[in-house]
Automatic annotation (TrEMBL):
This is LysR family transcriptional regulator. It comes from Undibacterium umbellatum. Keywords: DNA-binding, Transcription, Transcription regulation. Residues 11-68 form the HTH lysR-type domain. Coiled coil: none annotated. The lineage of its organism: Bacteria, Pseudomonadati, Pseudomonadota, Betaproteobacteria, Burkholderiales.
């Protein structure tokens, strides 16, 4: 292995973070998705770190990336550096018992747009001294690295260092605008509504890069691929407005669809799973009075309020 000319004090810690992410996810694509970065950006960061080290960290193999001997030697020290940085941040946060300051929340685009504004208005009335930063993203921000203080997600986090509270479940269903339905030809009475042939008569609104909907249909026994969806966009807000404009048939939360009298639920025989709502923060951050106040307020609001 070549001698490393590496000075950590002169290195951007984001490069170390990127290296650890690629190691943990096994590929640039998955690591970039988890970090909310583009793959080219992450590739440049790894290349910059390799340049500063004077050695390659990964080699490409059939199933993705494999650590070089240099990379193997650096994994544990890099993880130790990240753990130390997290501990420093947590120690600083938990010493703050002042209610004045900022709490950073991350939530999906739909929750950020349709759920949080009303709740945060109530919070502002109760605690005007607390400032809120909202990250509206479907990416799962890393609470362990303080990308956010509190996360609202539809999946349970796997990290043991996090507090995760399951608040409620939101039913979802399939909807279409009544004007779009009026344009469709009537189907034969004998045709099963859940048959793939019948479902393909609709213009479906789906996701582009994400396979979430594809996986859901396949779990229900309908073997579809990306081409099943005639309109594809990974932005849920765009899909919601496309549904309201009658562009096609889409899947959305029932409480949201019920706000729009022009939307009609269809394919009611199709059983869809509900979306679990999880509220998450780091264990140590719960000892921060400001973050604990916001966490408890959101838990109450999300669990009991009707949107």
């Amino acid at each position: 292995m070549s001698k490393l000319a590496f000075d950590p004090s002169q290195t951007d810690w984001n490069l170390i973070r990127s290296f650890v992410a690629v190691v943990e996810h096994g590929s640039l694509t998955r690591a970039a998705e988890a970090m909310g970065l583009s793959q080219p950006t992450l590739s440049r960061q790894i290349a910059e770190l390799e340049s500063s080290l004077g050695a390659a960290l990964f080699e490409r193999v059939a199933r993705g990336l494999k650590l070089t001997p240099t990379g193997e030697n650096l994994v544990e020290p890099a993880r130790y550096m990240m753990a130390a940085a997290r501990s420093l941040g947590m120690a600083a946060a938990t010493q703050n018992h002042d209610m004045h300051g900022t709490v950073r929340i991350t939530a999906s685009e739909m929750v950020s747009a349709f759920v949080l504004p009303a709740l945060l208005r109530q919070l502002a009335q109760l605690h005007p001294e607390i400032q809120i930063e909202l990250v509206a993203s479907n990416q799962i921000s890393n609470l362990l690295e303080r990308e956010a203080d509190i996360a609202i997600r539809m999946v349970r986090p796997a990290q043991s260092a996090l507090i995760a509270r399951h608040l409620t479940d939101w039913p979802i269903a399939i909807y279409a605008h009544r004007d779009y339905l009026a344009e469709l030809p009537s189907r034969p009475e004998h045709e099963q509504v859940t048959s793939l042939a019948m479902m393909q008569r609709f213009r479906w609104l789906g996701l582009d890069q994400s396979e979430q909907f594809i996986s859901g249909f396949r779990a229900a026994g309908l073997q579809i691929d990306r081409s099943f969806f005639d309109f594809r966009c990974d932005n849920y807000l765009v899909n919601w407005h496309a549904l309201q404009q009658g562009l096609g048939v889409g899947i959305t939360m029932r409480w949201l669809a019920e706000r729009s009298p022009d939307l009609e639920q269809i394919l009611v025989e199709q059983d869809l799973p509900s979306l679990p709502v999880w509220l998450t923060t780091h264990r140590e951050l719960k000892s921060s009075k400001r973050i604990r106040t916001v966490f408890d307020f959101l838990a109450e609001g999300l669990q009991h309020h009707r949107f």
